Amino acid sequence: MHRKAGASALLTVLVLAGCGAQESPEGMSEAAQAAGTMDESLTELLEAAKERSTTDFERETLDRAVENGGLTQQDYEEAFNRYQECAEAAGLQETYRKMPSGLYRLVETGSGDSEDSMATAMDANAECADGTIMRIESMYALQIGNPHMLADSRAAVIQCLYEQGHIEADYSMADFDRDMEDGMRSAPFDLADEAVDDCFYSSGFAISAQT
Asked: For site-directed labelling of 65, which of 114, 132, 159, 190 has its Cα 20 to 30 A away?
């Protein structure tokens, strides 16, 4: 059901000349500046998602989002509720946790341990997600997890962490890659912090704190 993307407006990169140097846009990390923005606007991405819709509900929701400039929390909640109703009717026993961003994260599934039962659960999950939550969640996560429409999802995580005060502006994508390879053991932030975890999850990184 999950996978990701998000956002509300294109990042405007302001370049100010001064003594031969460039001054950073206020509030933007160096990684965000280096990443640049997506080629498509949010409206274009919503339009593309609408074209792939498979149900009237999904199509109408995304069409309204195109007109309004984005999805609402209510749109996402309705899509999630429709998915859950289908999943429960299919016999799936899933437990979700609501993140600070408003996204729902799967934390437990009662699909069983056998390969057959897991495959059956995955098929039911995909069938229920298509037409309810799949495309709507992807776009909603993009809006809230990457509001600057950064072209690199790593930069979206970094910008979120920077805005929350967990890292300095010069924390780079190379630093991010190094910390990922190290399992975040030496990272300047704590994955056990729900807000930090949410920065990762809303940007498409479903990882967990090391225990």
From this structure: 159
3-state SS class at 55: coil
Identity of the amino acid at 209: A
What are the residue ranges in the chain where pLDDT is below 50?
1-24, 211
* DSSP code of residue 53: -
DSSP state of 4: -
Instruction: DSSP for 5-33, please give it.
Output: ---SS------EEETTEEEPPTT--HHHH
Contacts of 193 (CB under 8 A, 6+ apart): 166
Query: Which DSSP letter does residue 3 get?
Result: -
| Residue 114: predicted pLDDT | 66
Helices vs. strands in the chain: H and E counts, helices first: 9, 4
For the chain, the distance separating the N- and C-terminal CA atoms, rounded to the nearest angstrom, is: 26
For residue 1, the model assigns a pLDDT of 44
The span from the CA of 36 to the CA of 28, in Å, is 11
Query: Of 154, 156, 210, whose CA–CA distance to 183 is shortest?
Result: 210
Q: What is the pLDDT of residue 119?
A: 86
The closest alpha carbon to 141, from 30, 49, 36, 59, belongs to 49
